[in-house]
Design a protein that fits this description.
553 residues, mainly alpha, Serine Threonine Protein Phosphatase 5, Tetratricopeptide repeat, elongated
Length: 553
């Protein structure tokens, strides 16, 4: 609902709430006896409870009997009945007897159908002191970008007691960073029982760290039906502090059931964390259908995880077309899997333009394959500057291929320090080659601790060179559990030196079966030590063949 329409409804409700301090039966008696005031009050009472058709003749009789206040009530009633042209005629009649409220109402009615005369009536009502009209003149000016003039009217309306205007002045103060005055206006609106004022005050005090007061105002606004306040309470309790306890679910649920898309998303995510998949997925879908871009993306990810690629692609496309760069990239990935190369590049490019660094990296790798190195590097540079550790790593690879060791080391270091374990071992290798062995080994260990079996094998080799055989064996064994072929060779060789021939033979055989020629040669030696000359001869022959093939390659 627009601000102007919201105000119109509020004003009409106030018209229908004219004080009626007598029973309907006594009003009927007075009206039937010819009392124009009772006729008017009876018409208002009937309209307030929804009996619009019955109200109309009593209001007309009141007007005919000379009750000018009934003219405005008649105009409002006809508007509610959908008889707009009649309603506007009655507003004009009310204006002719001096009703500033009728000027405001007519202005709003004319705005709804785009009549240029609307602002004239709103301004007349505002200048006649009608606070709501002042606010709506401000709204019109704000829509046209005339913020300074809009604020003047908002301030006039606020000083005249209009709580809507107080909230609007608060919002303008917030935009300018005038926190104290912002809070003052929100507080005045909140104390006037305006739910948006309560919400704004809650947001303001939360921003300055007073969570207890924020919670109190959010609760008041939520009790008044403010959906955003319900959602904000959910957020407050979804990130609990030691001194603040609460359950976010009921607040997210209330806001979600009232139609708040982000609340639907949060509720769905909360339920999924509790493994309540059916209801959790349903809320995510409802959030997506309500326009939540993040929900569209999450539904797509879940669908992809379940192998429902048609649904995933459809949801990625929805979110991508709504501007979600993650969805653009994932849509590109999905399309690539089924060979739609032209559309893949289109979505990668759109995602990259929207700042998605994964898309920049993917485009860079494609460009590298096509020999467009400068373009690839420019994409990687953009992604790296945005903090993408994968881009930093790939810049390290690119520089290493060009034998630019210092630049390569610098990019590997940035990537590794950003937590990318793939960059740690290459950084260690470059440092080792630059005779920085202590730091190199520290990066090998970090890489190994992150699960890199090649780094484990390297550490084993370094330790064995230093004569720390037991420690070397520990790392070799970790590496072979991860399937590392050279570690099998090294472990088998180490065991053979200790005369542990059976286990040595086992590891050397595994490495030999994987095609490692040095393992074949060492296996032959172990077999000869055990007197198995024929098999040893066979492995020596295979080792020679493997070395020849390697030399030819």
């Amino acid at each position: 609902m627009s601000e102007l329409e919201n105000w119109r409804r509020k004003a009409i409700a106030e018209t229908y709430r004219n004080p009626v301090d007598a029973s309907e039966s006594s009003l009927r008696k007075g009206a039937q006896a010819g009392d124009s005031s009772d006729m008017h009050r009876l018409g208002v009472e009937l309209a307030a409870r929804g009996s619009l058709t019955e109200a109309e003749p009593w209001l007309k009789k009141a007007v005919a009997a000379g009750n000018d206040d009934a003219i405005l009530s008649m105009a409002v009633l006809l508007g509610d009945l959908g008889r707009i042209s009649e309603s506007e005629a009655w507003y004009r009649r009310a204006i002719s007897v001096g009703s500033s409220k009728a000027m405001a109402f007519l202005g709003l009615s004319l705005i709804k159908r785009g009549d240029a005369e609307a602002e004239h009536f709103l301004r007349d009502a505002a200048e006649a002191g009608h606070a709501d009209a002042m606010t709506n003149v401000g709204v019109l000016l704000l829509r046209r970008g005339n913020t300074a003039a809009a604020e003047q009217w908002f301030r006039k309306a606020a000083e005249a007691g209009d709580a809507d205007a107080m909230v609007k002045v608060g919002l303008l103060c917030r935009e300018r960073g005038e926190g104290e005055e912002e809070e003052s206006w929100y507080r005045r609106a909140a104390e006037a029982d305006h739910s948006s004022g309560m919400l704004g005050l809650g947001v303001r005090v939360e921003r300055r760290g007073d969570m207890r007061e924020a919670e109190a105002w959010y609760r008041k606004a939520a009790r008044a039906g403010n959906i955003i306040a319900m959602y904000n309470l959910g957020l407050l309790f979804d990130e609990p502090e030691p001194e603040r306890e609460g359950n976010p679910e009921p607040w997210f649920r209330k806001a979600a059931e009232a139609g708040h898309p982000d609340a639907m998303l949060r509720l769905g995510a909360l339920l999924l964390r509790r493994d309540e998949e059916i209801e959790g997925n349903e809320w995510l879908r409802r959030a997506a259908d309500a326009g939540s871009r993040d929900a569209m993306y999450r539904v797509a990810v879940l669908a992809e995880g379940k192998g429902r690629m048609d649904e995933a692609e459809s949801r990625y496309r929805e979110a991508a077309e709504d501007g979600d760069s993650r969805a653009m990239f994932r849509l590109g990935v999905a399309l690539k899997k089924r060979g739609e190369e032209e559309e893949v590049e289109l979505w990668y490019e759109r995602a990259a333009e929207a700042g998605n660094t994964s898309a920049m990296v993917s485009l860079a790798l494609s460009a590298e394959q096509l020999g467009r190195r400068d373009y690839a590097d420019s994409l990687l540079q953009r992604a790296a500057q945005a903090g993408d550790s994968v881009a930093m790593f790939n810049l390290g690879v690119s520089m290493e291929r060009r034998e630019q060791a210092e630049e390569s080391q610098a990019w590997y270091r940035k990537s590794a320090e950003a937590g990318n374990s793939h960059a740690m071992r290459p950084l260690g290798v470059l440092l080792f080659q630059a005779d920085q062995q202590v730091e190199a080994e520290s990066w090998f260990k970090k890489s190994a601790q992150a699960g890199d079996v090649s780094a484990m094998a390297i550490i084993g080799g370094l330790l064995e060179e230093r004569g720390e055989v037991e420690k070397a064996e520990f790392w070799y064994r970790k590496a072979v559990r991860g399937g590392h072929i050279l570690a099998m060779l090294c472990l088998g060789t180490l065991l053979a030196k200790r005369n542990e021939l059976e286990e040595a033979k086992e590891w050397l055989r595994k490495a030999s079966d994987a095609g490692e020629s040095d393992a074949m040669k060492n296996l032959a030696v172990v077999l000869e030590m055990q007197g198995e000359e024929e098999e040893a001869k066979s492995w020596r022959h295979r080792a020679a063949g493997a070395r020849q093939r390697n030399d030819n390659e």
